[in-house]
Amino acid sequence: MKLWTVKKLVEKKPIGEKVKLGGWIKSQRKSKAFTFIVLNDGSTQDDVQIIADDVLEGYEEFVKCGTGSSMLLHGEVVESQGKQDFEIRATKVEFFHRADDDYPLQKKGTSMEFLREVSHLRPRTNTFGAVFRIRHALAQATHKFFNDNGFFYVNTPIVTAMDAEGAGELFRVSTLDANNPPKNDKGEVDFSKDYFGKESYLCVTGQLEGEAFACGMGSIYTFGPTFRSENSNTARHLAEFWMIEPEVAFADLDDVAKLGADYIQYMINYALEHCAPELNMLNKFISKGLIDKLNHVAKTPFKQITYTEAVDILTSSKKKFDYKVEWGADLQTEHERFLTDEHFNGPVIVTDYPKDIKAFYMKQNPDGKTVRAMDILVPGVGEIIGGSQREEDYDKLTKRMAEMDLEEDLYRWYLDLRRFGTVPHSGFGLGFERAVMYITGMTNIRDVIPFYRTPGHVEF
Ligand code: 4AD
Ligand code: MG
Questions:
Q1: Which of 120, 200, 311, 322 has the fewest Cβ atoms surrounding its Cβ within 10 A?
Q2: Which helix (H) or strand (E) is 141 found in, with range?
Q3: Residues 10-48 pLDDT 10s
Q4: How far apart are CA 336 and CA 81, in angstroms?
Q5: CB 67 within 8 A of CB 103
Q6: For residue 81, how many other CB atoms are within 10 A of its CB?
Q7: Residue with the nearest Cα to atom 4 of ligand 1?
Q8: Per-residue DSSP letters for 228-293?
Q9: 92: Cβ–Cβ under 8 A, 6 or more apart, which residues?
Q10: Residue 233 confidence (pLDDT) above 80
């Protein structure tokens, strides 16, 4: 017999058909001669109601199964007497497993904090089923968006020797004996004896290698894991997150700013179209007004201002900030929040930041003070995209690298791109979890990645 899913059943409503279906019990209601079971298999937001009556083989044992128990059964799809479109009258139980009594998801309304402790079981809840089906849809949307726009998907290395963002937030990759590492004459750890023959790390970005492919294939994007050992225990930082990094040859900053806005709007429309039941649930229980917000953002052009204009808006706002607003300093979360949540009440693209707070590779503006950088900020989440036009001039780039004390040897190949037919090019990185937060209305980044890694936390 064909194995069905609840999703397929809901789509087809095959009244009269004999089906085979597996899932986990959400709830159970018993009467004398039969039992109603609400079953969910995670394929969709909907549950399905099963009626089992006492003529069923093994009925006695079977109905002792409570919340969290699993079952695989055969049955007939019938019109429902209740509110549902249909229900299933069980004819045979092929398999069941009664969950232990301490199944942690018994109670309704368990807190997000508690659910993080049972990250391995939370995919069975309504909320997390919805979040992770949306996350899946957004990954599909990402590949479709870039493919339809002529981008090639490139996989960049995860292990690297470069700190491309220059922020020093690296996780070391090493096979040396941590207790007894080889030392050189100066008494320092001798990394020439390490696996790769030099110090190596998990990547903080795939951008530089992405640039190499853009400077040969035109438009590319990456979609991969990214690692940063930043010690920020916030609701928007992970030590391991996923980033999408498009890179476009011959494009300037405005081209990729538009690409970034188009991509975000595309993802929103894709979710609205493919994840209506999930968004409805989140709209009702997690984030009131979510669907109105998404509909609005999907069709409203993003505002675009320079960093200098942003500083002017913030200083003339008369609002009391914890961190002082000062030209030259990076925008803090509270400043970004003010711009998106209060001043513009929507996403905003901020460009041309001071060069001293940005990475070495960004294109230098003629003013000598700023670079062609951009961040896209969204309400509730803050920075969702960071990007820039890249410095394509060999001399300017090497000069900047020297100023920033970068080891030129490591970047020799990157500089080659500026020696052999250099071209203007631009790109950005979108933090996938930040996008999932924004589109689901979830407020903690730990709740939009299956198993989160943060300072002090590497469970599961
Ligand atoms: O702004 P970032 O650091 O930019 C880059 O890495 C560039 N190489 C991108 C490029 O131009 N190709 O990071 C990009 C985005 C941020 O805007 C944010 O959404 C996300 O990555 N991000 C994080 N997400 C979760 N946890 C963290 N610790 C993050 N750090 C950055
Ligand atoms: Mg950034």
A1: 322
A2: helix 126-148
A3: 999 999 999 999 999 999 998 878 899 999 999 999 999
A4: 53
A5: yes
A6: 9
A7: 386
A8: ------STT--SEEEEEEEEEET--HHHHHHHHHHHHHHHHHHHHHH-HHHHHHHHHHT-TTHHHH
A9: 56, 57, 73, 74, 75
A10: yes
User: What pLDDT score does 324 carry?
Assistant: 93
Amino acid at 194: D
Q: With contact defined as beta carbons under 8 Å apart, do 245 and 256 qualify?
A: no
Ligand nearest to the CA of 166: 1
Q: Which two tokens stand for residue 377?
A: 């900020």
Instruction: Give the integer Cα–Cα distance in Å for 173 and 159.
Output: 7
What is the C-alpha separation between 130 and 281, in angstroms, rounded? 8
| Contact between 393 and 422 (Cβ < 8 Å) | yes
Q: How many CB atoms lie within 10 A of CB 207?
A: 25
pTM above 0.90? yes
Q: How far apart are CA 298 and CA 269, in angstroms?
A: 6
DSSP 8-state code for residue 331: P
Q: What is the pLDDT of residue 110?
A: 86
Going by C-alpha positions, the residue among 381, 383, 376, 386 that lies closest to residue 438 is 381
Task: For the chain, give the number of residues.
Answer: 460
Q: Got the DSSP string for 35-86?
A: EEEEEE-SSSS--EEEEEETTSTTHHHHTT--TT-EEEEEEEEEE-SSSSSE
Query: How many Å lie between the centroid of ligand 2 and the Cα of residue 57?
Result: 61
CA angle, 88 then 91 then 94, to 5°: 105
How far, in Å, CA of 84 to CA of 47, rounded?
A: 10
Contacts of 73 (CB under 8 A, 6+ apart): 20, 21, 22, 50, 52, 88, 90, 91, 92, 93, 94, 96
CA distance 416 to 420: 6
Could you report the per-residue pLDDT of 239-258, keeping only the tens digit for each? 999 999 999 999 999 999 99
- Taken in order 227, 228, 233, 234, the sign of the CA dihedral is negative
Q: Is 428's C-beta closer than 6 angstroms to any atom of ligand 1?
A: yes
Q: In whole angstroms, what is the distance from residue 129 CA to residue 43 CA? A: 8
430 CA from centroid of ligand 1 (Å): 6
Q: What is the pLDDT of residues 154-199, one digit of tens each?
A: 999 999 999 999 888 999 999 999 999 999 999 999 999 999 999 9
Ligand 1 atom with least separation from CA of 375: 17
